[in-house]
């Protein structure tokens, strides 16, 4: 058993509680607060809604339709969420038992890895979808040349690899610790004998996740959609595109769900030097974690809410509503291409203009 001036056990990856090194007396078991109960409800909802919802999207996109660039993006986004929600029963049990981890060291590592892996993969896929929309609508010639299923599969492989790298520290640092009362915790064992090194590693991992898993993707999406709306605001067909609004809704949902978690993750870094925020973090972070986990079940629900068939939802099934929206999303690229072809023709029919089609065919 590692000993140190303090020990940690955590929600998700970095919610830190401090345990003194009790050598003679038994350390107290943490009890479930109202915040933990709210967190438990959110996790349960994410599991109950996320498993069937994402399974339907995977079934439609992966097995019912032909593979296109758009369908591949949404398919892999659903796969990332589906993998994550399958592991939620472990975390639900962890919270329900007062943060006692009975599943062993390797599932402790795997559970935390999958959580970070999902967060990274989801935001990377959303960033790629946003860039794909921008290139496809604003630079159609470049899109026609490079936007292929083969190139998309290469980018997807890169995204999965990058998400694995972001989540891999959990496979190394996560550990289990059994206290005197056979109460086992799943925590980050950064360094059992050097608190200063523990603080350094905690800072580095938190800021890396914040910049690469949140801030950089957020700025990229803001720039893409800002330029996109400036360019197409006069085009009724493009601005009413089902895909554009579906993607935007999914992106907004992701950042609404994950922003509180990242904010409190950064605030938590101060607890190494000042325990003033300890009580706040103890209650706030479990809720922000649960709120972040809810994002994994939201996308299929958004597909239903954005469906034109919602008005007759009492006459159709959930899967039919999802399928209808995904069908509209998959065909919106064709509509966009037709609009851009007509716009291009109008531009190049003016006197002295060159026909771009002749240049691209040469």
UniProtKB/TrEMBL annotation:
Membrane-spanning ranges: 37-60, 72-92, 112-131, 152-173, 207-230, 242-264, 284-306
Organism superkingdom: Eukaryota
Signal peptide start and end residues: none
Topology term for the membrane: Multi-pass membrane protein
The UniProt record lists the keyword Ribosomal protein: no
Keywords: Cell membrane, Disulfide bond, G-protein coupled receptor, Glycoprotein, Membrane, Receptor, Transducer, Transmembrane, Transmembrane helix
Domain G-protein coupled receptors family 1 profile, chain residue ranges per copy: 53-303
Subcellular location: Cell membrane
Entry similarity comment: Belongs to the chemokine-like receptor (CMKLR) family.
Name under which the protein is recorded: Chemerin-like receptor 2
């Amino acid at each position: 058993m590692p000993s140190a001036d303090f020990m940690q056990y955590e929600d998700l990856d970095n919610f830190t509680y401090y345990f003194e090194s009790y050598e003679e007396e038994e350390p107290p078991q943490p009890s479930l607060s109202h915040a933990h109960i709210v967190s438990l409800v959110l996790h349960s909802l994410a599991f109950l809604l996320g498993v069937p919802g994402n399974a339907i999207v995977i079934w439609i996109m992966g097995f019912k339709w032909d593979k296109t660039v758009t369908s591949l993006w949404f398919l892999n986004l659903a796969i990332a969420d589906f993998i994550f929600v399958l592991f939620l029963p472990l975390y639900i049990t962890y919270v329900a038992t007062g943060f006692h981890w009975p599943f062993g060291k390797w599932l402790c590592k795997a559970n935390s890895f999958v959580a970070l892996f999902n967060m990274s993969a989801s935001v990377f896929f959303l960033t790629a979808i946003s860039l794909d929309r921008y290139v496809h609508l604003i630079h159609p010639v470049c899109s026609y040349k490079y936007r292929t299923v083969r190139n998309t599969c290469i980018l997807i492989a890169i995204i999965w690899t990058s998400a694995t790298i972001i989540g891999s520290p959990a496979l190394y640092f996560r550990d289990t610790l059994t206290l005197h009362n056979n109460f086992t915790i799943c925590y980050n064992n950064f360094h059992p004998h050097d608190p200063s090194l523990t603080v350094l590693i905690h800072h580095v991992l938190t800021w890396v996740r914040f910049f690469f898993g949140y801030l950089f993707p957020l700025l990229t999406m803001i720039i893409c959609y800002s330029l996109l709306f400036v360019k197409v605001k006069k085009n009724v067909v493009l601005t009413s595109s089902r895909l554009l609004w579906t993607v935007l809704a999914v992106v907004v949902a992701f950042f609404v769900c994950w922003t509180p978690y990242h904010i409190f993750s950064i605030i938590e870094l101060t607890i190494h030097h000042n325990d003033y925020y300890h009580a706040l973090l103890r209650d706030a972070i479990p809720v922000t974690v649960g709120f972040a986990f809810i994002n994994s079940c939201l996308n299929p629900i958004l597909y239903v809410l954005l469906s034109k068939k919602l008005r007759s939802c009492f006459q159709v099934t959930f899967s039919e509503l999802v399928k209808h929206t995904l069908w509209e999303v998959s065909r919106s690229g064709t509509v966009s291409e037709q609009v851009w072809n007509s716009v291009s023709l109008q531009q190049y029919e003016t006197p002295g203009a060159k026909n771009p089609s002749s240049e691209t065919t040469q």
